[in-house]
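Suppose a colleague, Dr. K., hands you the sequence of a protein chain of 411 amino acids and asks what its three-dimensional shape might be. Before reaching for any lab equipment, you can write down a predicted structure in token form. Begin with the sequence itself:
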Amino acid sequence: MATLSPFARPLYVMLKPSGAHCNLACDYCYYTEKLKLYQNSSNHVMSDALLEKFIKEYIESQMTKEVLFTWHGGETFMRPLSFYQRAVELQQRYAWGRQIDNCIQTNGTMITDEWCRFLHDNHWLVGVSIDGPQEFHDEYRRNRMGAPSFVKVMRGIDLLNKYQVEWNAMAVVNDFNADYPLDFYHFFKQIGCHYIQFTPIVERISTHPDGRHLAAVEEQTTRLADFSITPEQWGRFTCAIFDEWVREDVGEYFIQLFDSTLANWMGEQPGVCSLAKTCGHAGVMEYNGDVYACDHFVFPQYKLGNISSNTLVEMMYSDKQQRFGQAKHDTLPQQCRQCQFLFACNGECPKNRFCKTKNGELGLNYLCEGYYRFFQHVVPYMDFMKNELLAQRPPANIMQALKEGKLNVGA
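The predicted structure, expressed as tokens, is then:
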């Protein structure tokens, strides 16, 4: 079988313009600790020269007419608006006829009218981190003084809506809010959020001489962080929300997990890397030009180089990065290879593969039990929607079929 060339996929590097700096101190954040990787640096912001170098090289590295820039943190809004205005100017200078798109992720607490005018006028997509209604959100999302952030986030969302800025929700599912799936889902419907990404939080605590605490996947002698969701919770959570979505909301509300699952059912590339067969196409660049294999693998052993001495093409298409991406498939334990849902799960994210299989083989995903329950639950629905798509009919037809009792599913 011919191996797919790495150049067949667009080069994608997420940008950290202010590194891991953030105005909040969320308990479960996996990135604020990255400040300790650069604790000898006094200035954790991207220079104008580096910004220009990245934008020019990033555009030149693409083989498609559309180029997507993703701005991430830390908290992206800790850089002044003038930084992003300059970025747009540079994008226009080096676009050479290509379509430039931008998406930016934020905790939503620093959004202003001025920001919204910029975002609207330049057609930026905004990803807002919000973990459901106030009780759920404020459980773990507070600032360094312990003050809650929900009210500020909702004020930011109201401003985005006022200026008609396109936005979606990035919602972390943790040990607390996972027990209330429908309350969680209904909140997003009530605030008019039609695009939702649910991210199950799984982190392990370790210690390092440089002060870091999160564990790389290779480290086994670590403990699970208290806020982490359990596999059982993840299974119940996803099934409960899916049951409402499939009967009422298909085609109206778009949930990344459900859409990506249907893509895998169709044999298409899913919209989220964790459910893809391989990974490695999505790197991340820190404020100083250091490039890493993945946003969840910003550890020294996964550093690919620095843009000052290596090109993005060299780093992202390097043998090291290709091995990293292929390892997602190649290191699957036998239990996964024999699983009926391998095509749908693909072992999920490698960062969560720190458990042992029933036979004692290392590399089983911590969330395996939850994902298995979800995939087993959605089989008849996914089969129906797949057949509708193959017949060039909308998958939303499933809602009427369920009302009319034409689908043979359990209660």
